[in-house]
Amino acid sequence: MDTSSPPPAEAPAETSAGVTALWARLPGNLRGILLLSLGAFLFSVVDVFVKSLGGRFHPIEISFFRYACGLVFLMPLFIRMGRADLATTRLPLHLLRMGLAFAAQLGVFVTVIHMPLADATAFMFSKPLFTTVVAVFVLSEVVSGRRWAATIAGFVGVLVLVRPGAEAIDPIALVAVASALTFATANVLIRKLSSTEPTGRILFYYHVGGVLLFAGPAAYVWTMPVGIEWVQLIAIGGLTTIGIFCFMRAFAVGEANAVGPAENLRLIYAALFGFLIFAEIPSVWTVVGAAIIVASTYYIANTERGRKP
Hints:
- The chain is an all-alpha fold.
- It has 13 helices and no strands.
């Protein structure tokens, strides 16, 4: 008779439960910082893939993969929500927000492909500055004098990046600024939508709309991926989706003033990836402009936290 004992079947489950329990015992702010750091890293990896593929694939085709793969990864959530939870009475506002976000996303990809990663990332950090201005006109928000001062200082940082006194302004820099402004406007419209629309519903129309909008143009400029390119294109959608989840969970489990600064790691990741992979060396103007923008947006974030629960 064989009296040997088989290995315990629950060992992997017990290990998983132990890791989950350890994670739950961590302070909320520490969990938020780790999640936001991971999300910032994933977004930086996405930028690396976009820049690597940009020499062979049109930004429109990359955008199509971003939304199509994101839709596939989010499909279990949408199925669980069901038709009733996905139905909306605010389709026009969804369409307006989607149109702005799609144009901004395309602009971001163009910026990442044609500009050093550190510069492109620094420009994207200016979104909160534009959000302050747009919210005044769209949401009739009242902005304090100190917040206006921080916003103006942040725009000085943007001017440092653009360097309008140079012999010729880089048109890609103008695309980057326009993309930040457009994304900021789309984010303000999310505030209007969120009064009646849950996050899952907003994500559903955003991704379905992206697939429908970019499918035709992507087919026109289509280049067939080969080998590892398939993995990179799929990862652009998948890692972006996971990164968004990390950001959402980070601010759900931790305090904004403690967790938020971890997003600045994205600038460090961008500079490191740019140097190690693409041999890019950030200029003094990039460092100074990025520092001004980060300081301004950090102050604005703290002001926002004090104004709202």
